[in-house]
Design a protein that fits this description.
By secondary structure, the protein is of the alpha/beta class. About 35% of the residues lie in helices and about 25% in strands. Strands 3-2-1-4-5-6-12 form a 7-stranded parallel sheet, sandwiched between helices. Strands 8-9-7-10-11 form a 5-stranded mixed sheet. Helix 1 crosses helix 9.
């Protein structure tokens, strides 16, 4: 059996980072060799184990990917990143220096940041997905198929619901759903998107796709694509019950990515869709 893949987790003490840590530590094909948190974190330089309710792990919490990589023993081969768009950019720059593969689940990247992501992927292998759920990534394919098969006689609306602390809207998953159904209808994604309606807006126009965000409570993530025609409608829905869903997808991506050639991959590639 091959030795486990040495992994660094960025955003280690965040809501998602903690779930990723547990998933890495529970998988005998992976070895946690480092963890990263923001520079103002009060627990920097401490062993990660006691911070997450475990015995000492021999991996200290660092304030940068560069420092975590320098301390890693054995040398890290990839890292998993659920942080912020700004941190993602910093981590990608360092990953190229250290030849680290990257699994990135951060949402809210703007067009310039996505371009930088693509440029980094020319040098290192990267899996980036706005949603690491295996079910959601299958949903992208199904939604695309439905949009094309049903045709323009069916209106499309996308509704996403997340916890009240989520910062970006619409969610990265909703934006990806919009992108795939717009492409299936040969529509310009930017021109077709409607993110809110108020007042006397008039009748719904042809080629319009609503992308609506709800923020409430502690909802992990719900996404629905509504296809409505004359006399009937279909609703394609995914509900995430736990952040462990996303952690499991990240682990599957990490196991697949190790040893891949440089390139920008999605979870669809990981799943062979």
């Amino acid at each position: 059996m091959n030795p486990p893949i040495p992994v660094i987790v960025c955003g280690a003490l965040g809501r998602m980072g903690r779930r990723v840590l547990e998933a890495v530590l529970s998988n005998d094909r992976l070895k946690l060799v480092g963890a990263v948190e923001r520079p103002d974190c009060p627990d920097l330089d401490r062993d990660l184990g006691p911070l997450i309710g475990r015995p000492e792990l021999g991996a200290k919490l660092a304030d940068s990917l560069a420092k975590a990589a320098s301390l890693a023993n054995p040398r890290a081969r990839l890292y998993i990143d659920f942080t912020t768009p700004e941190a993602v950019m910093d981590n990608l720059a360092q990953a190229q220096n250290d030849n680290l593969a990257a699994v990135i689940g951060t949402t809210g990247l703007d067009q310039a940041q996505k371009k930088t992501l693509g440029q980094a992927a020319e040098k290192i292998p990267v899996v980036w997905s706005p949603n690491m759920s295996l079910g959601v990534n299958l949903m992208f394919k199904v939604a695309q198929f439905m949009a094309k098969a049903l045709g323009p006689d069916f209106d499309i609306e996308i509704v996403e619901t997340h916890h009240r602390l989520k910062k970006d809207a619409p969610s990265g998953t909703a934006l990806k759903l919009h992108e795939v159904v717009a492409q299936a209808r040969s529509l310009d994604p930017a021109a077709s998107m409607v993110t809110g309606r108020k007042g006397l807006v008039g009748a719904r126009t042809d080629g319009e796709i609503g992308v609506l965000a709800v923020r409430a409570g502690d909802v992990v993530g719900d996404h629905t694509v509504l296809f409505a025609g004359a006399g009937e409608r279909l609703e394609l829905t995914h509900r995430a019950h736990s952040r462990d869903t996303f952690a499991a997808g990240a682990i599957r991506a990490a196991l697949w990515l190790d040893g891949q050639k440089p390139g920008l991959y999605s979870l669809s590639d990981v799943l062979g869709l």
